[in-house]
Amino acid sequence: MSEFQRTAIVTGAGKRVGAIVAAELLRDGWSVIAHVHHVDDDAPAGSTKVVAELQDASCAEEIFAIAERLPPVALLVNNASRFAPDSLGAFSQAELDAHMAVNLRAPILLTEEFARRHSSGMDGLIINVLDSKLVAPNPDFLSYTLSKQALAGFTDLAARALAPQGIRVNGIAPALMLRSPGQSEQNFARMHDRNPLGRGVEPEDVVSTIRYLVSARSVTGEIIVIDGGQRFSPPQRDVQFLEDE
User: Fold this and answer.
1) How big is the CA angle at 78 (ends 16 and 18), to the nearest 5 degrees?
2) Could you write out the DSSP letters of every residue in 113-137?
3) Fewer CB within 10 Å, N side or C side of the chain?
4) pLDDT tens digit sequence for 32-86
5) 85, 46 in Cβ contact below 8 A?
6) Can you tell me the distance from the alpha carbon of 143 to that of 148, in angstroms, rounded to the nearest whole number?
7) pTM for this entry
8) Alpha helices of 28-74 — where are they, by DSSP H?
């Protein structure tokens, strides 16, 4: 089956890395369903836009419903993510619930719907976008980090469960790529390439890893860390809280 006969779903495709991933998959010949959060959010030209609230338990059905008129869905990129601050001493139960709903429950529901609709004999691929905090954790953004750790665990479990159906499940864990909410331009400029390789991680690194995973049809249950080696000397706090040097 050629790429022109396959559909990819990208969550959080209205901005930042998700928009770049969706646009590049279109360039590669995929039909793309671009999930966005709000009705007035833009989606890459040529994609099929779908609006859904990932905190709602109906989100997977709403997103997949629009795929009925498109080629079979062969790729799901769970990219959308909630990223809000809390920490021990300033823990927010509401933030934990919200992070788990968006960053964990929604990918689980989407994975289940993907598997339910998967055609026998077709290579299926699910990619969960994680965070390099997995291999270099720090206590900042507590609920966010816990949700990504849980999604990493689900990546392994789903890969084991779905392999007999020909569905591969992998993760990509990038370091800082774009300026985070609340991060100053100066801090981003100083911290972006603060790693042993001395070069910042770019959205294109995620795109190239997705392309690799699409072609690597025997790879499943893996998490690929993209951090320039930052984990070799991990910061003790989130980079946006480190003092400029």
Assistant:
1) 15
2) HHHHHPPTTS-EEEEEE--GGGTS-
3) C
4) 999 999 999 999 999 999 999 999 999 999 999 999 999 999 999 999 999 999 9
5) no
6) 9
7) 0.93
8) 59-65
